[in-house]
Amino acid sequence: MPDSVMQNSFHLDAVPIRLERCGKTFAGGARALEPLDLTIRGGETIVFLGPSGCGKTTTLRIIAGLESPDPDGRVLFGEEDVTALPIERRNVGMVFQSYALFPNMTVAENVAYGLKVRKIARADRGRRVEEMLDLMHLGEFAGRRIDQLSGGQRQRVALARALVVRPRVLLLDEPLTALDAKLRDSLRLEIDRLLRGLGITAVYVTHDQGEAMALGDRIVVMAKGRVAQVGTPREIYYQPADGFVADFIGTMNRLGGLSRGGTLSIGSATLPWSGPEGAVELLVRPEDLALAGEADGHLGGTVAAAVFLGDRTRLVVEPADGPALTVDAAGRSELGRGDRVWLRVDPARVLAVP
Amino acid sequence: MSACVQDAPLPHRPAARPPVRPGWTGEPLRLAALLAPAAAVFAAFFLLPLVRLILIGAGGTAGWSAYLTTLADSGHLDSLISTLALSAGVTLVTLAVSTVAGLFLVRNRFPGHALLVALLTFPLAFPGVVIGFMVIMLAGRQGLIGTITQALGAGKLVFAYSMAGLFLGYVYFSIPRVILTVMAAAEKLDPRLEEAARSLGASSWRVVADVILPALKPALISAGALCFATSMGAFGTAFTLATRINVLPMTIYTEFTLQANIAAAAALSVLLGLITWAALAVARSVAGTSVAAAG
Ligand SMILES: Nc1ncnc2c1ncn2[C@@H]1O[C@H](COP(=O)(O)OP(=O)(O)O)[C@@H](O)[C@H]1O
Ligand SMILES: [Mg+2]
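^ inputs. structure came back:
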């Protein structure tokens, strides 16, 4: 796949997108999106991530031209203000969760549709469709009807149909959500390689944090119509802006602590500390809690559950007080329910929420 | 994907039951027993009268050749042709009007929407006679249209008692059913399909031609076939407007009651039935869905 992309001359312009004060209030007064400012770099894959109903699709549709932002808002593709342009004049590629392929057309006709609308000559059209089908490994399905394809094949057709017209921007709304887990992984890899190979600016909407981490150059975490955080997957994971982001991405433990005069007390231990003073809530990832002996542990607890995951064993540890903690032990760990364990906290890897 | 569907036990059939062997035992016998009452009703109320009608058609002085000679009568042939032309015209106009109106009603919500839909479907409740009255009130000698054209100094326009009046009445009568069918089908359209087409650069007209009409096609064909069949067989409106209107049901009525030419009336009836049935059959095969004949 990466080879075919590289060999292919098919490379798309990398148009930056700028959203300025793009809010959305639907008729009836429901505020779906608070005014949003965001710059998406040319060629970047940006992922909108958040729970259902947080305004991801609305934002994508504003970029697409399917919804207009509230009066003050503007959408720019490069230097061009496209706010007033309807979708058919924005030259954007769209991929939907439900594929949205034309059921009355074959695979090849679906892919050719955008070229036909653009009145590309038949011969040229045929060549470009063939090239695109090959790129998406769909050559053998050219004559098939849509209902003769699997979900994964359908979504590849939808991608081919969107890309063949060389759009300025590719917009994907939960494209993998309708697929089963295994297909989802393989198509995600394919989309990843495709986006990197084509160099197109892409906006990808998902509620799945794994997808977001794997695909995004940057992630925009959204909550209730607001942007909670914008950052690279690493930034989002290791420096979540708030408790919501921390909980939404990966597994996060919460520990109560008390800091005073440069020290932090957790359980029975006192650690050096440079964070905020007073009673703090500490956020710590499972992999940043280490199992230790009684002598060097900071926090004692009892194993409430142990789930063997192959490469590791995920333990749920109940400390003497406070909420249960999730900790990763080695895969070969023999620890089980009822065992007494000690945990070490690395203060450098702990985030404090005052 | 389809494998899971096949593997899943059918909900209404216990999975543990042993397979039934083919033959006149078990299931088929039970089925035949269940079908018997339906078959009896079918025979008594449908098959027997139909056979009788066909035989009567051949019972005149001309015998079986009556089916051909009936049409050799230029009056009868004219009647058949004008009925076909009227029904085809009514069908096309009704489909066009109802598609536009139905799509508009599904796409746009406004105050009074529900009331308008209710009003549009009102003619469903009227028998042909009432439709005929309404056409006369609109385009008859004392009608609204005539009064207006006279006031405008263009002379009194009266067309209720002709093919044009019948056409108007049939369109008025057919629109509700077709609009309801179009609306039901349009509600099921996937808006993502239209958005996908637009994202590829399609104008509104192209979206209609490439996405909406293909999706509505089965509904339009079945609704159109019903409309055609109803127009072919309708009688009440024509009877109310004028006995001179030359449509097949009127001709049959005239042959039967006034001329007492029972064989010709029967032959024409069978012919009318055949043509209508053929139209429905063609529509059914084109649309790929079942189209019930009009009542
Ligand atoms: N056409 C609409 N009319 C009214 N409210 C809408 C419409 N579309 C979306 N909403 C509302 O806006 C909010 C955000 O929706 P959406 O952007 O689809 O969320 P997401 O894609 O993140 O699940 C939701 O509360 C939803 O109910
Ligand atoms: Mg959504």
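The CA atoms of residues 30 and 290 of chain A lie 46 Å apart. The longest helix of chain A spans residues 181-198.
thumbs up if we can close this ticket
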